[in-house]
Amino acid sequence: MSIKYKKLIASILIDVVGIIPIPFFDFIWAPLSSYFMLKMYKGKKAKIASIISFIEEIIPYTDVLPTFTLMWLYVYVFSTEEISEI
Predict the structure, then answer these.
(1) CA gap 86, 52 in Å, rounded
(2) Residue 57 and which of 68, 69, 70, 83 are 20 to 30 A apart at CA?
(3) Left (φ > 0), alpha (ψ -120 to 50) or beta: where does 50 sit?
């Protein structure tokens, strides 16, 4: 399995973890989510996505947005930039 599809699986799992309705979980998960976004994707777009991910996770009732999966779609489906896998 290529790194592309491993990132897709990881993105879906991270999005699922992000919607767990445990009180105060968002205060722990928001910075972790932001960190994971920076590690999974590179460049300026990843930095912007990590900020969006942090805000989305810290604000109540916005956890249903699949931020990581949307970023994966952006990077691997909609982007016209050349992707270099390491």
Answers:
(1) 25
(2) 83
(3) alpha
Cα of 27 vs its chain's centroid, Å: 16
Render each residue's pLDDT in the chain as its tens digit; 86 residues.
899 999 999 999 999 998 888 878 889 999 999 999 999 998 999 999 999 999 999 988 888 889 999 999 999 999 877 665 55
Contacts of 11 (CB under 8 A, 6+ apart): 40, 66, 68, 69, 71, 72
Phi–psi pair at 52, nearest 5 degrees:
-60, -40
Non-local (6+) Cβ contacts of 24 within 8 A are none
Give the number of C-alpha atoms closer than 13 A to the C-alpha of residue 6, restricted to the C-beta side.
7
Amino acid at 49: A
